[in-house]
Amino acid sequence: MSRRTKAKLREVIHGIASSSIIVAAIYLGGCAVHPLPDDYSGVTGRHIARQIRCETREAVIDSVLGYLTDERNKGAHQVDEHSRNLGNKYKEALKTDPGAMRSFRPDKLTGVAQKVVDLIWRTGIAYNYNLEMTETNNNDGSLNLINIFPKSSRSLGFGAKLDLQRQNTRIFTITDTFGVLASNTDPDYCNYGYQIKDKNIIYPITGRIGIDEVIHEFTAMALFDNLSGKDGDDPSSPKGPSQMAEQLEFTTTIDVSIAPKVTFTPIGRGLHVADASLSEESIRKDLHKLTLGLYVPSNAPLAAIRGGILHDLGTPAVNALASAPVRTPGEEGALAIVNQALLLKLFQFRAQVVQP
Question: Which of 207, 277, 302, 331 could be joined to 175 by an S-S link, Cβ 3.0–4.6 Å?
Fold first, then answer.
């Protein structure tokens, strides 16, 4: 290869390399070095947690007032006339005053209704969030040169690749009691940008996720379907620790790619660029996990709940996978249920891995 040809080759490669660096810099400039929940969904982790708490609050209020005002409960679950009228009063008040429930207390009710609602009020709920964000950027470039001679031609190909991946996992746990959510929460807490939205198909955890169905099902099973007690038991006096766990997983993957290619028609002899291409692919994967624990407090020792699943698996004591400050027995029990669910998931995964 002559000096002139070599010089021409260096010039072409330098030009293509410079262009590729500029394009890559522009492309990568929009990528996240530290992936966050709101990069694509537009909703922060704090906003997600707050919105789910507000959805839970709404579900608790609907469950309590629904129980008090349902005509079928006048005989089946002994909601007396006074308690029913009080339920209707608060149901009407909420239509014009979002803060009406701040004055509601179970001790305003009478009879069995007072005992049932008091249990609901003391029920604990724990939310464990695991928000995993992964961003991948694959960049490939190719350059083909052709050197035309009088009776033949030679080609020379170059390729380059730059693959990047960043990952972030954000984990946190929050606990509540139904009563605090329903009556001690400032009405403005769920307003000013935190109103409960409709379902979001693309990023489900940023919209309404169906907490109302979970709360309604749990209260019905725990208090009226004898989830822990025996048939015929008074629903206001469960015989065991009524508890339930719910694990939700939402996966959203966005895959965008571009692959431009330029083909040149060489004229005359010497070294020419035959074609050049640049393929770029950006993949964003969001895996959002929410584990809910619900617990109706009773006289049963919490130690039995904490160690039950580990004892069944024949496993020694393990530190809790989720932790949060708790203020009531209901919250403590709900947190224990979350840890049980997380441990069961962990041991199920390990069992799959070690299978021959």
Answer: 331
